[in-house]
């Protein structure tokens, strides 16, 4: 018997009522989805019960795991017998991201995101990043627009500022798809903090909708980059503020776009039920008059989320609906990233992913292969993701040679892209084809992939 010194932790573990090993597994899951490189076991929890304290920067991960196990989103470190991280009046952490001031949140997110993890000026324990919150991965029943503050004294910002922000977003979006979200996310974070937030605070009543729509677009894009870089919590924070600003701008297109991104993030992190609900919420946001191309984009995400959650029949029905909508869309594609540029190649990617989740591996391989062929060379990150997922599917079909050749075909894309999502797929490939490394083709490509992973570590 161990001597219990942390009675608060002991009480919460008793409430959970599962073995310490299972609690450790939940902590490790939270750590993995937030790109934190540590693991715990039952022995670790036993040490904490005797009075040892985890490293301060790891405590938020443990608290989030206990919140999920206890279904207690308000749980704090003190409830587990540990000291709380320092707080200050300008910091929104701890506040509900769906209700706190969006400009304060954007400023905080940008300041966290514009520095590499080891150079954040605020070195207080646990303050280097935000964690993905399962409780926040749902749209509240009353998620209306935040109160509209009066413009700050001094100059007022108008429509020209909104146009400027949109144009800058277009530049960042192009860089994101060419080189991956991790390449320029610090730059977009700095632009949000140093330019967009001050502009929002000086928005005139007449220009407010246009400015908030432009800011919502950029916040969505920053979230997309952060998610691609493996910063799940920061991405979630950006996404939530994008939804709220889209509501304030009365822009259903942006709200649906961001809810779709939140659904994709949840699915990729393994929270399939939340992903399904978020994708369905995105669809409910669309009016009957929504453009068919945008509706197809949202519906295909619903199909992917429903398949991931085990609803294969519903997913196939949704795929057919997405195909019909895309066929009805006008031939022109707007050059933006909010559904207006959704293409047949992109739909083939989601169709392949959906069919793979449903267990239809042969047609899934055909769709992913066709999607990869249809993607232009400038879309390196998309090509990298599609190619690595195609290779993973070929491994599932016992085709290690084909998987290696697929990776070889996108090798020039992989060397240019900096993306935690791509690196995660590459890591899984190396683990899954380990038994086939005696094959010369697999061995050569494995050596190439291992070098890429070491280079980015």
TrEMBL record:
<protein>
    <recommendedName>
        <fullName>Transcriptional regulator</fullName>
    </recommendedName>
</protein>
<feature type="region of interest" description="Disordered">
    <location>
        <begin position="141"/>
        <end position="161"/>
    </location>
</feature>
């Amino acid at each position: 018997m161990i001597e219990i010194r942390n009675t608060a932790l002991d009480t919460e573990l008793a409430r959970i009522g599962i073995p310490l090993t299972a609690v450790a597994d939940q902590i490790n899951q939270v750590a993995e989805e937030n790109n934190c490189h540590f693991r715990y076991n039952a022995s670790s929890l036993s040490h904490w019960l005797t009075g040892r304290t985890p490293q301060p920067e790891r405590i938020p991960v443990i608290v989030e795991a206990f919140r999920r196990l206890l279904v207690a989103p308000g749980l704090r470190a003190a409830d587990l017998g540990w000291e709380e991280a320092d707080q200050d009046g300008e910091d929104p952490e701890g506040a509900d991201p769906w209700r706190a001031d969006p400009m304060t949140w954007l400023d905080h997110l940008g300041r966290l995101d514009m520095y590499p993890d080891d150079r954040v000026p605020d070195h207080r324990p646990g303050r280097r990043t935000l964690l993905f919150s399962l409780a926040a991965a749902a749209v509240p029943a009353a998620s209306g627009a935040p109160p509209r503050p009066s413009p700050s004294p001094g100059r007022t910002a108008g429509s020209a500022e909104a146009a400027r922000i949109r144009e800058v977003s277009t530049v960042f979006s192009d860089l994101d798809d060419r080189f991956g979200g991790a390449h320029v996310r610090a730059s977009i974070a700095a632009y949000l903090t140093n330019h967009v937030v001050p502009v929002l605070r000086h928005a005139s009543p007449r220009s407010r909708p246009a400015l908030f729509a432009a800011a919502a677009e950029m916040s969505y894009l920053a979230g997309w980059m952060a998610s691609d870089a493996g910063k799940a919590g920061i991405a979630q924070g950006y996404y939530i503020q994008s939804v709220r600003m889209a509501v304030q701008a009365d822009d259903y297109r942006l709200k649906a776009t961001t809810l779709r991104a939140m659904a994709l993030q949840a699915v990729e992190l393994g929270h399939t039920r939340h992903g399904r609900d978020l994708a369905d919420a995105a669809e409910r946001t669309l009016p009957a008059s929504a453009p068919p191309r945008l509706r197809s984009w949202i519906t295909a995400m619903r199909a992917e989320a429903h398949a991931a959650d085990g609803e294969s029949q519903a997913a196939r029905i949704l795929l057919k609906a997405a195909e019909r909508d895309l066929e009805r869309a006008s031939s022109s594609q707007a050059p933006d990233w909010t559904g207006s540029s959704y293409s047949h190649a992109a739909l083939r990617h989601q169709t392949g992913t959906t069919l793979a989740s449903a267990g239809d591996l042969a047609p899934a391989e055909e769709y992913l292969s066709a999607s990869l062929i249809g993607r232009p060379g400038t879309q390196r990150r998309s090509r990298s993701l599609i190619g690595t997922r195609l290779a993973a599917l070929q491994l599932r079909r016992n085709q290690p040679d084909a998987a290696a050749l697929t990776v070889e075909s996108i090798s020039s894309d992989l060397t240019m892209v900096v993306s935690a999502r791509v690196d995660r797929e590459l890591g899984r490939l190396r683990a899954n084809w380990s038994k086939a490394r005696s094959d010369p083709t697999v061995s050569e490509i494995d050596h190439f992939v291992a070098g890429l992973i070491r280079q980015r570590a």
